[in-house]
């Protein structure tokens, strides 16, 4: 059980991973549909929140101008109470697309990508600061945050914490985020350089993640160099026909299965019934069967249509190859000759 080993990358720099995948067609346009499912799991309280918008332009109104298609997804895994995750879920569109002056254009180029990244970073930090001032959110309440933005063929993932985004590329699981946990050498080094410590896998002996929004009792005074930060890391890819779907899940999923196991389960389901909502539910149910101990939330965003007509079991059976001895063949021929002369 548990997540597979991750590639460790420097964490004080923005991660921009563009996979060197040739586009199958110059005219490929993602065909977006999605599904989601959440369950309280074995916990007493539900602290997860998520957002799923397949058409962001329609959601924000006619005044915005984005490359099409345009979609937005997010998972927010709260801790220390549900308040922080609920607050970020409620206001995330304002933080990212209004207060941060999100750039608008109908075309994607390098300059636009940089503006998008800067805007998302600013939005995450604005959300973090807002939690410090929100009287209805306890200073001990915090949340991880992972968002996925589709702009035309661009997929950009921003992550703070240990939710995970996994892309299915021709059946292969490709991690589009890094879990921000104390056991990663780069995160541990950053924490220790800022005066923090790791005790039994917990930041300052308290928190199981090294990046989060909120948790202001660990960040005060405001503006100080805290080992717990809200700085997001980014990964991006230009989608092709080989990029089938994206799974976004909270850590309750990845505690009990690998990225590839999750991709395999979802891919089988989509080929059977092409229903991402059912696949999200199946993934949660599988995590429960594997005895996860956390809340569970999954969002699945599909980028291509699939041929979900799977061969029936009878058609999949292989015919057994039979061989006959020379004596048997002679006996069979003799029987046929006798039968024909009757």
Q: What does the model show?
A:
The chain is globular and about 100 Å long. Mean pLDDT is 86; it is low at 1-25 and 308-323. Helix 6 crosses helix 7. The strands form three sheets. Strands 2, 3, 4, 5, 6, 11 and 12 form a seven-stranded antiparallel beta sheet that branches. A five-stranded antiparallel beta sheet has the order 1-14-13-7-8. The protein has helices spanning 56-60, 83-99, 110-133, 185-193, 251-254, 259-273, 276-289, 313-316, 326-341; strands at residues 33-39, 48-53, 70-79, 142-143, 145-151, 154-160, 164-169, 172-175, 198-199, 202-203, 213-214, 233-238, 243-249, 296-302. It is α+β, with helices and mostly antiparallel strands. 32% of the residues lie in helices and 22% in strands. A hairpin with a 2-residue loop joins strand 9 (198-199) and strand 10.
């Amino acid at each position: 059980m548990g997540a597979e080993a991750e590639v460790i990358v420097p964490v004080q720099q923005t991660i921009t991973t563009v996979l060197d995948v040739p586009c199958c067609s110059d005219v490929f346009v993602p065909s977006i549909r999605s599904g989601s499912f959440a369950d309280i799991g074995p916990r007493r309280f539900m602290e997860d929140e998520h957002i799923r918008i397949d058409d962001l332009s329609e959601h924000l109104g006619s005044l915005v101008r984005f490359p099409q298609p345009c979609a937005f997804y997010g998972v927010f895994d709260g801790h220390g109470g549900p308040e922080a995750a609920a607050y970020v879920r409620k206001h995330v569109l304002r933080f990212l697309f209004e207060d941060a002056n999100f750039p608008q254009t109908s075309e994607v180029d390098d300059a636009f990508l940089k503006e998008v990244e800067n805007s998302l970073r600013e939005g995450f930090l604005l959300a973090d600061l807002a939690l410090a001032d929100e009287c209805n959110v306890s200073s001990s309440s915090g949340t991880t945050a992972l968002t996925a933005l589709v702009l035309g063929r661009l997929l950009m993932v921003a992550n703070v914490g240990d939710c995970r985004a996994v892309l299915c590329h021709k059946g292969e699981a490709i991690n589009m985020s890094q879990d921000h946990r104390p056991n990663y050498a780069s995160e541990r080094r950053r924490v220790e350089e800022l005066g923090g410590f790791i005790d039994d896998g917990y930041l300052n002996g308290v928190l199981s993640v090294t990046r989060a929004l909120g948790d202001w009792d660990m960040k005060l005074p405001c503006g100080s160099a805290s080992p717990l930060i809200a700085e997001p890391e980014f990964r991006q890819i230009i989608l092709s026909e080989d990029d089938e779907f994206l799974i976004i899940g909270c850590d309750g999923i990845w505690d009990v299965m690998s990225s590839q196991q999750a991709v395999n389960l979802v891919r089988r389901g989509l080929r059977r019934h092409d229903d991402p909502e059912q696949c999200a539910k199946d993934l949660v149910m599988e995590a429960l069967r594997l005895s996860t101990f956390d809340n569970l939330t999954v969002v699945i965003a599909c980028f291509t249509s699939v041929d979900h007509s799977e061969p029936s079991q009878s058609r999949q059976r292989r015919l057994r190859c039979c061989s006959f001895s020379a004596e048997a063949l002679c006996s069979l021929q003799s029987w046929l000759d006798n039968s024909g002369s009757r």
